[in-house]
Design goal:
This protein has 211 residues and is an alpha/beta fold. It has 2 domains: 135 residues, Rossmann fold; 41 residues, no CATH class. Helix content is 48%, strand content 12%. It is built from 7 helices and 8 strands; from the N terminus they run βαβββββαβαβαααα. The strands form 3 sheets. It has a 4-stranded parallel β-sheet, sandwiched between helices. The termini are far apart. 15% of the residues are buried.
Length: 211
């Protein structure tokens, strides 16, 4: 039996129907683990070492994977064909290895498809590849930035702007870069303060100039 991991349980049922009884398709339900929201989860001084914490859903999913692997002779990672999907595949392998539940001789394949049709699924299974570590590294860099910026800036925003949303994933730093560049541009061009204020104002909100 060949074990196939996808992200969505709805996709799992359809793909299992296309692949047949020699395959068992199960869902990861997205990411199985993430950087915990606590101090020193990302450590720049240690070559950006990162801690990972299993979600409750991820813990159950991995236990189910371990049971399925006992009867499997190959593992296919068929998460979505994007950076996050590549990261999910990487996380699954890393967690199985950490638990010593991935047999040393177990073939591990990465497969991607861009549509849920029988032809696309079967073609993807004929053309497996390895996990793309460039995409994984891009994910790790983004996740480290999310943590290092967002984890530190969120408490300040919650303290000073109660009731407002926390900073979104990887948004605070690019936002600061944009605002700084736009502010300099407006000041150098002597444009009016109203346009400058509009940069900082969300639709439907008024900007307070008080500290």
């Amino acid at each position: 039996m060949k074990l196939v991991i996808v992200e969505s349980p709805a996709k799992a049922k359809t793909i299992n129907k296309y692949l047949g009884s020699d395959y068992f398709v199960m869902a990861s339900f997205g990411h199985i683990r993430d950087v915990p929201a606590k101090n020193n989860s990302v450590r720049p001084d240690e070559d950006f070492a990162m801690d990972w914490e299993m979600s409750p859903r991820g813990e159950k999913t991995v236990r189910d994977m371990v049971k399925a692997l006992e009867k499997a002779d190959a593992l296919y990672l068929a998460s979505d064909p994007d950076r996050e999907g590549e990261a999910i595949a990487w996380h699954v392998v890393q967690e199985l290895k950490r638990r010593k539940k991935l047999k040393p001789d177990m073939p591990v394949y990465r497969v991607v498809f861009h549509e849920i049709t029988k032809n696309a699924i079967l073609e993807a299974m004929k053309n497996p590849r390895e996990i793309d570590m460039q995409l994984v590294d891009a994910y790790l860099a983004r996740r480290a930035l999310d943590y290092l910026v967002g984890f530190n800036i969120s408490p300040l925003l919650w303290k000073n702007y109660q009731g407002q949303n926390p900073p979104g994933a990887c948004n605070p730093l690019p936002f600061v870069w944009y605002v700084n560049a736009k502010t300099k541009s407006l000041l150098l061009s002597h444009r009016n303060i109203g346009e400058l204020m509009s940069i900082w104002t969300h639709p439907g909100q008024k900007l307070s100039m008080q500290n």
